[in-house]
Amino acid sequence: MLGLLLAFFFCFIGTSAAKGHAPVLPDQLRLFQGQGTQISLALPVQAEVSVDRPDVIRLNGQPNPSMKVSLGHPLKLSSLRSGEAKLRMKLFGQIPLKTVKVNVIPDLKVIPGGQTIGVKVKSAGILVVGHHQVLTDTSKLSPGEAAGIEAGDLITHINGIKLKDVRDVAEIAEAAGKSKRPMQVTYQRDSKEYTTSLTPAFDKQDRAWRLGLYIRDSAAGVGTLTFYAPEQGVYGALGHIITDMNTQTPIVVGSGQILQSSVTSISKSESGEPGEKRAHFLKEGKMLGTIERNTHFGIFGKMSQNPEHSVYQKPVPVAFAEEVKEGPAEILTVVEGQRVERFKVEIVHVSKQSVPETKGLVLRITDPRLVEKTGGIVQGMSGSPIMQNGKLIGAVTHVFVNDPKSGYGCFIEWMLQDAGILERPQNTFQNLKAS
Fold this sequence. Notes:
Elements: H1 2-18, E1 28-32, E2 36-39, E3 46-51, E4 57-59, E5 66-70, E6 75-79, E7 83-91, E8 95-105, E9 109-112, E10 116-131, E11 134-135, E12 140-141, H2 143-146, E13 154-158, E14 161-162, H3 166-179, E15 183-189, E16 192-198, E17 201-203, E18 208-210, E19 213-229, E20 234-238, E21 253-267, E22 276-281, E23 287-290, E24 293-295, E25 298-302, E26 316-317, E27 327-334, E28 340-350, E29 361-365, H4 368-374, E30 385-388, E31 391-400, E32 403-411, H5 412-418
Parallel strand pairs: 1-8
Antiparallel strand pairs: 2-6, 3-5, 3-7, 4-6, 7-8, 9-19, 9-26, 10-13, 10-19, 10-21, 11-12, 13-14, 13-15, 15-16, 17-18, 19-20, 20-25, 21-22, 21-23, 24-25, 27-28, 27-30, 28-29, 29-32, 30-31, 31-32
EC number: 3.4.21.116
Keywords: Hydrolase, Protease, Serine protease, Signal
């Protein structure tokens, strides 16, 4: 009899799969504390379902650790407290079907942003962005290039002195040139530290000692706030890393701040030519937060209160990557002044990501108002929150150059991890913050 039942069950699964209705039994589930989910198998059979931690997970709203159910109806799970539990299913109370690991994580809610922000960041050292020739009495040369320093290198010390401002370099170079002593330059490249000897050259045209290097120590731009976490006092923005405009080298943060900004105009996106938001930092605007980290998923730092013009005044739930579905959604962004508005989009593709990766989803702008105003996604829109089914699911990050109505987004889960408010076993990506 048991053999006949097994044969019937597996034949049924095969028939269902052929019709596109194969049972979905995940190996593990993640829930935030206080939230619930359901498992739908659509199988016309009876099963015994049990959970080893009824204090963590409740079955169909009942306190019983075990019960008989019909798999033709959804099995409802509700989370009571953080912890791990195992959910076991047995067909007809005898045949092991599946064991599902359920991980309940402490509740986490944030306030979605959408505000246009001004970004000012100072690097943790002096960034080399190029070489130039110094005209001496006898030749043309770049002392920095001759010393092996390349564009993208970050100079952190000269003669053991930590560099805090680009003006420090000129003073040290002049002293070294006059004393005719080479400088010991410490720099970083690809997360490794090197030291080289560099002798400044005297430029006979501008009568100054030069290194033959183009350098800078700061950057500024416009982006969008993604979220503010009031309980933890932190924020996340942009959804992608800040890089130097010339070398495309990620900027290692020394310090920085985000400021209130107002959109003054928009250059519309066209196929082959992305548009941009034009905005200015408000003179009367206060600093909204500090910049402490620059990662592959944006910038993060401290923030003490919810910025003005928020659509949401209270925190909302966030979604795990596996909760994001193809279908309707909306983004929050500013297209004029400081007013945050909602705009309709469609999630057209969702990547399966179990570890942090960029470009987690593809979205398409479907709101005619936004298309008319911007032509689609424009520069400065990166970081715009993506909402679906009442949850914050991600942020806009990139525009498709040849199809500006479409672009990439990242999952909010990865941003929350880099903000330090959602635990991740191992930090896959480098945190670009000076130590």
